[in-house]
Amino acid sequence: MTLTARRDPQSPLAYIFSALFAVMRCLGIPTRVITNFDSGHDTDGNLIIDEYYDNTGRILENKKDTVWNFHVWNECWMARKDLPPGYGGWQVLDSTPQERSNGMFCCGPASVRAIKEGEVDLNYDTTFVFSMVNADCVSWLVHGGKEQRLHRDTNSVGNFISTKSIRSDERDDITESYKYEEGSPQERQVFLKALQKLKMGKSHGHYQADSKPFSPMPRRLNSPPLRPCDIIQVSLELQLLDLPNMGQDIKFVLLAINMSLQFKDLKVNLSAQSLLHNGSPLPPFWQDTAFISLFSEEAKTHRCQISYSQYSQHLSTDKLIRISALVEEKSCPEKILVNKIITLVYPAIIINALGAAIVNQPLSIQVIFSNPLSEQVADCVLTVEGSGLFKKQQRVFIGALKPQHRASITLKTVPFKSGQRQIQANLRSNKFKDIKGYKDINVDL
Q: Residue span of the signal peptide, if any (predicted)?
């Protein structure tokens, strides 16, 4: 996945996180901001994210469980005398809680160590935070008024859990602080331990949540084991052929490999739809059907292409597209689902300092940007700012940019603070917003 999620500095959410961060640090409490990619939003407290699809491969709108593209919270270092020994240290405090806790919108403090060890019965909101970083995803096919389980994914939730490195702008991956390595026996043991604790807590009346009754596993999962003749035994994967640049066609292939000794005659329903960053789907804008025949151990690829004209009018501001492939075979009741989430990429803004940066000496800043689309865009505005470099935000009204046109402007300023400084630039228009660029500059005395 592309790790490009950044809070808009003008967003109310950014002020909430920065305000709590600043207050806690002013009180002398060590605090840091955490970003969790593919963050689970489990509304019924069973550590399962349920996703529903129709027989065309389209994900159905589900206002309950979802997987957010990313979610952000704070960690604060504190003692926890209310918990057993060893559960102090970093604690999760979520400034934008997704669900009510005991009737109020709040989340935490939840011990990070308790989350890693599956101690979901410890205060506060440890169950919900556990689901954000380590819930399982179960996919369901909805057809004819019935639900059929398609797939259970144990490792798609909670990836690249990150914070800022000390004395550096580099990303510090702290995923191992929240859970054991995906696919390891320890991770599965902790997950099952958490399920058992929830079941015991519910039976003793300890589990509290504003949600539907607790069920560690939906009953419909308890189906008879599949016989060999009921299993398709085909490996499937969606692979991008090129970087998914905004304004260009999306090219990808479906790779199918027959893992059995029998001939396979497959029907594949493909679908593409935009997503909001909270996992909510928009209506499909592209669908296709492929028929693939495979001899034993044979591999084939089916090439697909979604043109810019097909997706341009259907994008959300989050630039996310989910491609799904639902595979079936006439002689087999089982179906296979694979999907891939694509984040469309904007061209970066390039920032150059034209000369040495010295306090109280004139400095020219060059900003290079482009229109990535194959159509003209209007109402283009470039904003540039930098603490110690500009006394106020610079706004440049550019107007229209021709298709795929590359342009540059030069701004003049006088740095007034020394040390490591950062220039931030943002370009928006009537067709896109928030194309960003960053440049670190060392200002000498």
A: none
Rounded distance, CA 318 to CA 254, Å? Answer: 25
Q: What is the pLDDT of residues 118-175, one digit of tens each?
A: 999 999 999 999 999 999 999 999 988 888 898 899 999 999 999 999 888 889 999 9
| pLDDT tens digits, 246-260 | 999 999 999 999 999
Read off the pLDDT band of 229 (50, 70, 90). very low
Cis, bond preceding 124 (omega within 30 deg of 0): yes
What is the maximum alpha-carbon separation in the chain? 78
Identify the three-state secondary structure at position 254.
strand
Rounded to whole angstroms, how far apart are CA atoms 47 and 65?
A: 10
Report the C-alpha gap between 304 and 240 in whole angstroms. Answer: 10
> What tokens were used for 153?
């994914």
CA distance 47 to 59: 20
Task: Using alpha carbons, select from 220, 221, 215 the residue that is nearest to residue 203.
Answer: 215
Sign of the torsion angle spanned by Cα atoms 432, 425, 320, 8: negative
CA nearest 39: which of 106, 130, 125, 107?
Answer: 130
Q: Are 132 and 114 in contact (CB under 8 A)?
A: no
Residue the block writes with tokens 């917003």: 433
Q: Which residues of 347-363 are buried (b: 16+ CB within 10 A; e: fewer)?
A: bebebebeeebeeeeeb
With cut-offs at 50, 70 and 90, classify the pLDDT of residue 442: very high
Angle between helices 185-203 and 126-134 (to 10 degrees): 150
Query: Cβ distance 71 to 63 under 8 Å?
Result: no
Q: pTM of the prediction?
A: 0.82
Q: What whole-number distance in Å separates Cα of residue 130 and Cα of residue 238?
A: 29
Distance CA 68, CA 278 (A): 4
The encoded tokens of residue 343 equal 């984040």
H or E element in which residue 443 lies = strand 435-443
pLDDT at 215 over 80: no
Alpha-helical runs (H) found in 165-267: 175-178, 185-203
Q: Taking Cα atoms as reference points, which of 108, 98, 96 lies closest to residue 45?
A: 98
HSE of 247, CA atoms in CB hemisphere, 13 A: 15
